[in-house]
What we know:
Oligomer: single chain
Strand content: 5-15%
Order of helices and strands: HHHHHHEEHHEEHEHHEHH
Bound molecules: zinc ion
Number of helices: 13
Number of strands: 6
Helix content: 40-55%
Amino acid sequence: MLPKAVVTNGHTEHSTTAANEPNVPPEKWQQKRLVRQKEKLRSNLLKSGFQFLDRFVELLKEMEDVPKDTKKKYLQKMLHAIFFFGQIHVTPIEPREFLPESHQDTFRCLYLAPFQQCTTHLPTKTPYSILLDYVTEVKRFTTPQELMSFLQSFNAQLWNQSLEEPHALNATEFTFTASVIACCFYSDPQGGTDLHHFYGASLSCKGLHERRIMIELSSIKTWHKAMAYAVHHGDTGLAITFPEGMWSQAFQFNVEEQKYQEKSPCGKCQQMFRNVNFWPPPNTPATGDKWQYGNCAEVESLSKLLLGTRVVEEGVRSTRTPPLPNSYEAIERDFTNSIEEDIKKSLINRLRSRQFKAKTLQFFNLQ
Length: 367
Ligand SMILES: [Zn+2]
């Protein structure tokens, strides 16, 4: 475990209110409140990054039979993603601030690329999705419940460890946990498939701007283009239809009970992803969901399935009328020719507005 001292990192908690500062004029008080709110957000991000790295390093140590190169690859991805969120924060956080002073030089020496590239290269995923990729690569989960139980224990240790700290975060303040995990598989109606499960996490970052950045960069880099197409058209009602045999199940983390519990799909996922057997079944009528298109865990899991299952990829269609030529390649072409460029421009503008040096879009890529 990394030394604890850094968690407090000079941040003090403020609890001042208008009631205990009666002589401060309202506009001054409002200004002070905003400054404190900003400080709190920055401090939460810093502590979340520290706690998450601490727990992830522990997890890597616990898994003794995993090859060192695999661990190093994932640790570097994790460091880079967390440093990146520090970089694009409204008041940027330097990479070394996420580490205890005693480890800063060693980490920089061992893992130079994340330190150098967090100001120029983008991550492809949020920290919790990187964790999910790691554990599903190195551990064989035979059922979604096994994975949920593993993640519950990971989360519990994340919080328990933080409880020892005077200024530690609770589950709701934490920046990098995914509230929902989705699992999907394809069951060939003709039979004969191995029902490989694909897992995805909801976007594990806080802030409207940050989420939009992750959705845009996922659209141009991480997700299958048919998913990016559906997410892009979420507002217009255009959607994609999957071939017969698709199943999707989601689990939401219940903070009070510290457990993942089954969750029905949101109205947006039902609208964007047609002909999927969701479990538990959708609520009727569908609720008005406030989050952005692309935020849900289903997007990542269905995208992984599309990227890994040729027969499903070939069976995906758009609901556009008159229809695109009847093939999945037509969806990809439509996305590449008329949508992708605008997303790239928007992403570059968003990054620039947060002091990120993005002349061109480059992604963190380990050789
Ligand atoms: Zn959804």
